[in-house]
Structures are given as structure tokens and as C-alpha cells.
Write a structure and sequence with these properties.
By secondary structure, this protein is mainly alpha-helical. Helix content is 61%, strand content 5%. Strands 1-6 form a two-stranded parallel sheet. A hairpin with a 2-residue loop joins β3 and β4.
């Protein structure tokens, strides 16, 4: 798949202005003390919630609240630690990035598979049907206008939430193993991992299943573990799915079909801006928790820059977009972004005039 060469000056000027900002301020493009504090806070949150669940005799309601807290902490580690590390924006030192990258394996995923699914397929071919696997949720959901419509999609804006709640369990127990065995992610082949990659993935799975499922079962062999597992995993799944969906499953974000043309009509950087939506720029607490993923436009344009720098460079991105008449969308609040996502799901669920086959 090729991108148009038209509009190349847009990204050239954008890069020059962003580079000038870092040169002028003397700030690093990688993570600093703010990111290290975030990392510490997220791991302490996760460890604290888990330890209380394991070591303290709790009444059922407190156990439920701690299970929710644990699920939020797992998602927080994903947002703030593994995401930057897998993009190489956590630190200027490769070994530090590698160590922090393994945090994804510790919370149930595979850092090796994630880099191919997210860094390569999603970031290169954003919202391109047939290439961006993030927009393919199978037959149950219609997330792009080129996907086949089924009658039950009329209700997808209602039943999508329990599916999102199952996202983490599906990822932990099925997706990674299937992709590792088949050598394909969403139908797209990826380079087979070397022995080290396979061993790292399997070792991470063993560690995760040990602390998340085996140890609790040994310490507390009771049926109460089942609802607590489901609550924690549902919280993680909902947070991960919703935050990532807000940026690309919205009416403002464009979608393209790889099967209709060998070349995209837009230059790569313009394509990234028009297929992505920011939200809640002024909500510092939300930005802190989601690891800057509410600045998705900036992230897609400059994935090698740490998320703590996105609020500053977002002003540059918005200004350059205006000067080149490139549409730049940013929902003012998380609620408006959420409602936009619900409306989008509802609209895609209605029977189209021409049903995709």
C-alpha cells in the first residue's frame, strides 16, 4: 500500500517546527522524571490493589472495589509504561525501553506481537480496511463503513460494552496464542519471532497467569475468585477498548478501503491527522491516567516522542494543520468523545443504502 506524495511539505514543516521547539526549550523527546513518577505510581497502584486482595480479609464490597482498582491499574500500566516503551519513546536507552516493554508481558499481553499489530499495522495503515487490524472486531461489530453489514449491527451500540469487557480475557487467553501459532495478525503475516522472542512471550504468559490466576487460587480456593477475576478483567478490557476506540471510531475520522485503490489519496501525515481524533486536551488528570492517548493525533505523527510532551506540541500541530487546511479534530471533553463514539456505532449499525459484501 502506497500513500500519495501530494502534500509532502505539510509534514516537513511540522517536523521542523516540532524539532525547533525541542531545540529551543532544551527538553528531551523521551521520558523524564514525570514519566518515571507515572511509572512508579502505576506499579504501586497495581501492587497495592493486588496485595490487599491477597493478604487482607475483606468484605465482598471492598473486594469488588479492589478488583475494579486492580483492573484500572493494569490498564494504567498499559497506557503509561508499555505503550511508550514499545514505541521506543520511554527512554533514549534501548535497554530501558526493552525492560519497560516487558511490562506488557507482565500484565498479560505480548510485547513482541503488540509491536507488529500496533506499531506496524495500526500506525502505518490507520483506518485502512484490510490492513489496520484495530478496526476489525469480527462479524459481531461493524467498525468501518466498508465492513459487511448484518441485521444485528442495529444493536451494536448497546451490546458493544460487554464485548469490550471481554476484550482483555480474549487477548490474554486466545489472540496472542492464535497469532503466535498462525503467524498472522488479522490476516496479515508478520515475521516469525526468533527463539528469544518466543521464549520471552511464553515466559511472560507464565508469569502473568501465575500472579493473576494461580497464586490467588492457591491462597483463596473459593468460587468468589471467579466474579473478582471477571470484574478486574472487565474493567481492564473496557478501559483499554474505549480509550483506543475514541480516537478512530468517530464520525470525524475518515476510513479507507485498501481493496479499492493501490494508493491512498492522502500523504501519510495528512492521512494520520484525518483518520484520528483527539479529546479532552485540558483534562490533566485524564491525560495523566491514559498516558497522553487523548492526544492521538500527536501520537500518530510523532510516536517516537514521549506522551508527556504531547500537550506542548499539540499547539504546533493544530497551527500547522490550519495553515495547510488539514482538518484537525479534538473533542473538548471525554464525554463528548464518548458520545461521538456511540453515535458512530449507531450510524454504522443502520442498514446502509448499499450493503458491503
Amino acid at each position: 500500500m502506497r500513500f500519495s506524495s501530494v502534500g509532502g511539505n505539510f509534514f516537513k514543516e511540522l517536523k521542523e517546527q516540532v524539532d525547533a521547539y525541542f531545540e529551543r526549550t532544551g527538553k528531551s523527546t523521551k521520558g523524564g522524571w514525570a514519566l518515571y513518577l507515572q511509572t512508579t505510581a502505576m506499579f504501586l497502584w497495581l501492587a497495592g490493589s493486588y496485595t490487599l486482595l491477597m493478604a487482607v480479609d475483606l468484605n465482598p464490597w471492598l473486594a469488588v472495589l479492589l478488583a475494579i482498582s486492580l483492573g484500572l491499574a493494569i490498564a494504567g500500566v498499559g497506557f503509561n509504561v508499555m505503550h511508550d516503551a514499545n514505541h521506543g519513546s520511554y527512554s533514549k536507552h534501548r535497554l530501558v525501553n526493552s525492560a519497560m516493554r516487558f511490562s506488557l508481558d507482565l500484565i498479560g499481553g505480548s510485547s513482541y506481537l503488540w509491536r507488529h499489530k500496533h506499531n506496524v499495522l495500526h500506525h502505518t495503515y490507520t483506518n485502512i480496511e484490510g490492513l489496520d487490524t484495530d478496526g476489525d472486531a469480527g462479524a459481531l461489530l461493524r467498525l468501518a463503513p466498508f465492513q459487511k453489514w448484518h441485521w444485528f449491527h442495529r444493536y451494536q451500540h448497546v451490546y458493544v460494552w460487554p464485548l469490550y469487557a471481554l476484550f482483555a480475557l480474549k487477548w490474554w487467553f486466545a489472540d496472542d496464542f492464535r497469532e503466535l501459532i498462525t503467524g498472522r495478525i488479522g490476516g496479515q503475516p508478520f515475521p516469525r519471532p526468533k527463539a528469544v522472542g518466543v521464549m520471552t512471550t511464553l515466559f511472560g504468559k507464565v508469569l502473568f497467569f501465575s500472579w493473576a490466576f494461580v497464586l490467588p487460587l492457591l491462597l483463596h480456593p473459593t468460587w468468589w475468585l471467579i466474579p473478582l477475576w471477571l470484574i478486574a478483567s472487565a474493567t481492564t478490557g473496557l478501559m483499554l477498548a474505549v480509550v483506543f476506540q475514541l480516537a478512530h471510531c468517530a464520525a470525524e475520522a475518515k476510513h479507507f478501503d485498501a481493496s479499492t485503490t493501490p494508493e491512498m489519496p492522502l500523504e501519510w501525515a495528512v492521512h494520520q491527522v484525518t483518520t484520528t481524533v483527539d479529546f479532552a486536551h485540558k483534562n490533566r488528570l485524564l491525560s495523566w491516567y491514559v498516558g497522553g492517548l487523548n492526544f492521538q493525533v500527536e501520537h500518530h505523527l510523532f510516536a517516537k516522542i514521549c506522551h508527556t510532551r504531547y500537550p506542548a506540541i499539540s499547539k504546533i500541530v493544530a497551527e500547522v494543520c490550519r495553515s495547510y487546511d488539514v482538518p484537525y479534530f479534538a473533542q473538548p471533553t471525554a464525554l463528548k468523545a464518548f458520545l461521538s463514539n456511540v453515535r458512530y456505532l449507531y450510524q454504522l449499525g443502520r442498514k446502509p443504502m448499499r450493503v458491503p459484501r
